[in-house]
Every structure is written in structure tokens, then in C-alpha cells.
Write a structure and sequence with these properties.
By secondary structure, this protein is an alpha/beta fold. The chain has three domains: 12-53; 72-154 and 334-397, Four Helix Bundle (Hemerythrin (Met), subunit A) (Up-down Bundle); 160-325, Rossmann fold (3-Layer(aba) Sandwich). The protein contains 15 helices and eight strands. The strands form two sheets. Strands 4-5-3-6-7-8 form a six-stranded mixed β-sheet, with helices on both faces. It is flat, with a radius of gyration of 28 Å.
Length: 404
């Protein structure tokens, strides 16, 4: 009830004592009936008694500071909330339950074991390192490097799992880009008209493609003759193409000179761009126009399609699933790094570990070897939060939603 004695709602309150709650603090949760008005009245009454709204990620930050979870598991909380597909969910869940942290701790233990041996040799400089001992140290460092390399290499797939695979649909005006965009969404999201230049901005939507989140963008048609607004859309389209994982280049094969136009367009693309050619409007041409051998010779694995009749759309989806899912890992068999922060720290650790291995091979001063190995351990420790600073925590938890 409020301070006037009026009953606001009938609620359930659960008290969680210190050490037993998510944050580690004394905590209580109130379960009220749904509805924004009721919720606001209860919150306003609580605020009158000295409480305040939580900052983004504050509960999880408190859980980390109380030692309830490590930093990698704390970051997984935000990833779990943001997960759009089963891949993203499973990767976040595995990190939340500590699989990544446990694996990193095992690697760290090996590094600490080796560091202890090297530091012990500093205390007895008169004793030469025996060949068998040097070989043993090289075996340990090789194992550590191999494990960290595997984690670093997994980030390419991890980035796609977390941020999505980016596909841009582009080509000349009136080639059918917006029609294909609508086919993927199974709704009329983009305006479709028989006149060139209908799409003057870009549209982006998320789709689930066999468990992988795909960011699909319909861009403005690229042509030399265009108005000021359309040119702005084209400039944005060019920028999007540079940042995308795969370009679907639409060609209108009902045009008489379409092959020469397509060849000229593809030459202008960055050679680093991954392109899949879509030959649209097959319903308007004879079959010999899209002869398979001739197409593959000129345009690679081009996909014939009719957005109007949907002929070829199932084959296009199958090809996209093959390309998008080709690098996706078996999450039941291996760990995947999905965080850019983790990848950066692992890569930094790897540099120090390689210098450590070289130092052992070259039989340099054990003090220098120990220094490099200690640097590697410090980089690893920043992943799980054994080493941290307030700036790192502020940056991580500011990306959380309020209430987490």
C-alpha cells in the first residue's frame, strides 16, 4: 500500500539473504500483476523510501564484484539476453555456465606451472638447463599456444554467431532487389514498382537462416543517372558493400545487353568482396538464355531466379545456408570466442607466448622469458577478471540493459 494506506496491488515478495542472491547482497524481488501503471506506482512508492533505479548491468556487476561469477560469465549474461538464434543462445549459455572460463583456467594453470619452473631457475643461475628440461618446457608452451590459437581462430565464426552474417542485396535499378528482400521476409516490407530508383535509402531486417542470424539489407540501385536523394542512397549502398560478408548482385536478364552490363558491374567491385550473382526475371526469357555451363564460365555459381514466380528461390536459400553455415562450428564439440575483447586479449597473450617459446629455444636469460610469460598470463587474467580496472568494467556493463 502507499503512504496514504491505499492498496496498490496484491504481490508476492521473495527475500534472498546475503550470499544466496544473484548479486551476493541482501535482496528482495517483488512479483506484481502486469501493467505499466501498476508497475510505475509500486516503483514510485519504493523510490520514496530511498531506493533508486539500477544502472545498466548493475546487478551483474555486483555479482562479479562479489565473486559470484567471473567477468567472462558476466558478459555472457548480456549475450544471452541479446541472442537472436539457437547458435547465439547456445554459445552464450555455454559461456554463462562457465565452459569458456574453465577452459581458459586450464590453459592458465599450464602457463603458471611453466612460469614457476622458470622463476625457480632464476634462483639457481649456476645450474644449466638440461636438454630434456628445455624440451619439456617447449612442449608445454607449444600446447598453450595451440589451444589459444584455436580460440582466436574460432572468433570468425563467433563474430557471426553474436553479430550476425551480413548480406547486402544490390545491383542496377529495377533488377528486383526489393522483390527478393520481400521474399526473404515473406512480407511486403520494401516498396516494389516497375520504375527505376524506387529504393532511395536502405532497409535492413534480421532473418534466421538455419539457426544463424542474418542481417539482410536492401540497398539503392546503382546507376550513373540519378537525382540528389537517390545519389545519397547510392553512396550509402557503396559503404554498406564494403562492410558486408556477402553481396547478392541482382541482374535483370530480361534486358538485351545484361551480360555485358553485369561483367562491367562486377569489375568495379572490390576484389575482396564475396559476391553471389542472382539472375532475376527468368520468367521473362527463354531457357537457353540461362545455360548453366555458359553462366558458370562467366559469372561463377550464378543463381537463376524469378522473384515473381519464386522459381529458384529454394535453391538460392540452400546456397546461402551452405555459405553462411559452412564456417559454423559444432557447438557440442568445441568452444567459440564470440567477444572482440576476449579475442584481443587472447591475441595479445599469443604474441607474448611466441616470444616466450623463442626465448626458451634460444636459451636467453630466464628473467626475460619469465617476463614474457607473465605478460601472457596477465592478458588471460583480464578475460576472466582476475585483473581488471574500473574503465574496463564501465565499458562492459554500460552495454547491458537496465535490470540485468
Amino acid at each position: 500500500m502507499d503512504n496514504k494506506g491505499d492498496i496498490i496491488d496484491e504481490v508476492t515478495m521473495v527475500r534472498m539473504p546475503s550470499g544466496k542472491s544473484y548479486t551476493g547482497d541482501n535482496q528482495a524481488e517483488i512479483f506484481c500483476h502486469g501493467g505499466q501503471f501498476v508497475l510505475r506506482r509500486i516503483l514510485n512508492e519504493i523510490f520514496k523510501h530511498g531506493a533508486r533505479p539500477a544502472e545498466p548491468g548493475e546487478f551483474t556487476r555486483r555479482a562479479f564484484m562479489a565473486g559470484r561469477i567471473d567477468l567472462a560469465r558476466a558478459e555472457a549474461v548480456a549475450d544471452l539476453v541479446a541472442a537472436k538464434t539457437s547458435y547465439a543462445y547456445r554459445a552464450a549459455r555455454d559461456n554463462l555456465i562457465g565452459e569458456l572460463s574453465e577452459h581458459i583456467d586450464k590453459i592458465r594453470d599450464k602457463a603458471i606451472e611453466l612460469l614457476s619452473e622458470i622463476e625457480a631457475s632464476i634462483d639457481f643461475p649456476e645450474e644449466d638447463i638440461q636438454p630434456a628440461e628445455r624440451e619439456h618446457r617447449l612442449e608445454i608452451i607449444a600446447y598453450i599456444i595451440e589451444e589459444i590459437e584455436r580460440l582466436v581462430e574460432s572468433y570468425r565464426a563467433g563474430k557471426i554467431i553474436k553479430e550476425g552474417f551480413k548480406i547486402a542485396i544490390t545491383g542496377r535499378p529495377n533488377a528486383g532487389k526489393s522483390s527478393l528482400f520481400n521474399l526473404f521476409l515473406n512480407q511486403s516490407r520494401a516498396i516494389v514498382a516497375p520504375v527505376p530508383g524506387t529504393t532511395r535509402d536502405y532497409l535492413t531486417e534480421w532473418i534466421d537462416l538455419d539457426g544463424v542470424a542474418v542481417s539482410l539489407t536492401d540497398t539503392a540501385g546503382l546507376r550513373s543517372r540519378a537525382g540528389q536523394v537517390e545519389k545519397a542512397g547510392q553512396a550509402m549502398a557503396v559503404k554498406i558493400l564494403k562492410e558486408t560478408d556477402l553481396v547478392l548482385w541482382m541482374a535483370d536478364i530480361s534486358e538485351e545487353n545484361w551480360k555485358n552490363l553485369l561483367k562491367a558491374d562486377l569489375k568495379e567491385l572490390d576484389n575482396k568482396t564475396d559476391v553471389l550473382v542472382i539472375l532475376n526475371k527468368t520468367d521473362l526469357v527463354s531457357k537457353n538464355v540461362i545455360d548453366g555451363k555458359n553462366l558458370e564460365k562467366n559469372f561463377g555459381a550464378a543463381i537463376p531466379l524469378s522473384c515473381k514466380t519464386r522459381a529458384g528461390f529454394a535453391g538460392l536459400k540452400k546456397e546461402l545456408i551452405r555459405r553462411v553455415s559452412g564456417d559454423m562450428p559444432d557447438l557440442t564439440d568445441r568452444l567459440v570466442v564470440t567477444s572482440e575483447r576476449h579475442r584481443t586479449k587472447l591475441a595479445g597473450s599469443l604474441k607474448s607466448l611466441r616470444r616466450t617459446a623463442k626465448g626458451i629455444k634460444d636459451d636467453i636469460s630466464p628473467e626475460l622469458i619469465a617476463f614474457e610469460l607473465n605478460q601472457a598470463v596477465n592478458e588471460i587474467d583480464e578475460i576472466t577478471g582476475r585483473i581488471y580496472n574500473e574503465e574496463i568494467l564501465d565499458r562492459i556493463f554500460s552495454q547491458f540493459c537496465i535490470g540485468k
